[in-house]
Amino acid sequence: MKKRSFQKPVLILTYLLGILISLSSSVSPFTGSTGLNTQKIDKNVEKLKQSSWFINLYEDERYRRSFFANKKIRSYLQSSLRVNHLIKNEKAQKSFISLLEKQAQLREKI
User: Fold this and answer.
1) What does the pLDDT read at residue 76?
2) CA distances from 88 to 15, 17, 29, 55, 96 (A)
3) Distance CA 71, CA 85 (A)
4) Considering only CA atoms, which of 93, 27, 31, 105 is closest in space to residue 66?
5) CA distance 4 to 43
């Protein structure tokens, strides 16, 4: 009988803990949705701007908007592993350019 009296407070504490965790992180434990880490993206863009191939893309008006507004591009740039791979690997660079091109074409259709 005493176990039942603890169920409600434990449930409430679990719920409140979930809310606190979701407020302090970019991942919601209830919906599984993730937010983008703007600081990390900006840091990774700065790393990439040390490469001439990236500067040319970044300054191109056709692609520039994607670096600020496109969720796929921004989530790609949020990953330090992907960014480091981009810096070192020409095939990864071509793949990223292809992704940018595809996103630009989708935006132009709208």
Assistant:
1) 95
2) 45, 42, 35, 15, 13
3) 20
4) 105
5) 51
DSSP string covering the chain, please?
Answer: -HHHHHHHHHHHHHHHHHHHHHHHSSB-TTT--B---HHHHHHHHHHHTTSHHHHHHHH-HHHHHHHHH-HHHHHHHH-HHHHHHHHH-HHHHHHHHHHHHHHHHHHHH-
- Each residue's pLDDT tens digit, 66-96: 999 999 999 999 999 999 999 999 999 999 9
CA-to-CA distance for 72 and 38, rounded, in angstroms? Answer: 13
In this prediction, the residues of the chain whose per-residue pLDDT falls under 50 are 1, 22-29, 31
